[in-house]
Specification:
The protein is of the alpha/beta class. Helices cover 38% and strands 22% of the residues. It is built from seven helices and eleven strands. Helix 2 packs across helix 7 and helix 5 packs across helix 6.
Length: 244
């Protein structure tokens, strides 16, 4: 007998057969005896807990792509860190970019939100941070963050469960991903030659080698495979915590 889920955590869609809605992932979501068509976070049995799923890994492991794939497929909230650096290219995802006219405007803004900051880091002279309002009351939130940020997050956040997922990739695969990305964006933006792009990638990988040498985490995921596979692996981790 098919269940009557009309909005499941796995597919966000439903089918109707003989007038009865059912989820195509029957075996996976039978645990929820619910006919509610609202998004998962709005269902009556949704636990009030907030979850921050931290994706941690070197550049090229697909953190941002995975975050938005999880949002697109499962409706999770994505915490876009605020940053004072300019976007690398038009439409860049993963951050909310801040622009200030002068130092005074910057200082006033940072002073006004200081108590709400849950994680902060400075890289290449630019600030990166997130605020309490970005996760509170939002159920499952995906946050791309580095190890120092996680350390601060564990100290500042007491009203949400923090789950750290480390993404690991082979250095050759990561290098190829970064070269492909940088050849496209850097060449368009600044007309960098091939040697400069390779040099920039090598510098970034060396920096990441130090920062991500060890990642205190709850789970470790192989990020060498395709995006859909990694996304499903991370979602299975999320579901283990949400279902309790």
């Amino acid at each position: 007998m098919k269940n009557k889920h009309v909005y499941c955590t796995h597919c966000k869609h439903f089918k109707i057969e003989d007038g009865t809605p059912f989820c195509k992932y029957d075996a996976m979501c039978d645990i929820y005896d619910c006919e509610d068509s609202k998004p998962f976070q709005e269902r009556p049995m949704w636990k009030s807990n907030d979850y921050i799923i931290c994706l941690v890994g070197a550049s090229g492991t697909g953190k941002t792509s995975i975050a938005y794939a999880l949002k697109e497929k499962y409706g999770y909230n994505v915490i876009e860190s605020y940053t004072t650096r300019p976007p690398r290219y038009e439409g860049e995802k993963g951050h909310t970019f801040l622009f200030f006219e002068d130092e005074l405007e910057y200082e006033n803004h940072m002073s006004s939100i200081r108590d709400g900051i849950i994680a902060y880091n400075c890289y290449n002279g630019h600030d990166y941070f997130a605020l309490k309002e970005q996760y509170q009351g939002k159920g499952v939130s995906i946050y791309v963050i580095d190890p120092p940020g996680v350390e601060m997050l564990r100290k500042t956040v007491k009203d949400a469960e923090i789950v750290v997922v480390a993404l690991h990739g082979d250095s050759i695969i990561i290098q190829e991903r970064l070269l492909t990305r940088n050849r496209y964006y850097d060449s368009k933006k600044s007309q960098l030659d091939s040697n400069s792009i390779v040099r920039n990638v090598d510098q970034r990988m060396q920096y990441d080698l130090d920062i991500f040498a060890t990642i205190p985490c709850d789970y470790s995921v192989d990020a060498n495979v395709d995006l859909d596979t990694v996304t499903e692996r991370v979602n299975s981790i999320i579901q283990m915590h949400v279902r309790g």
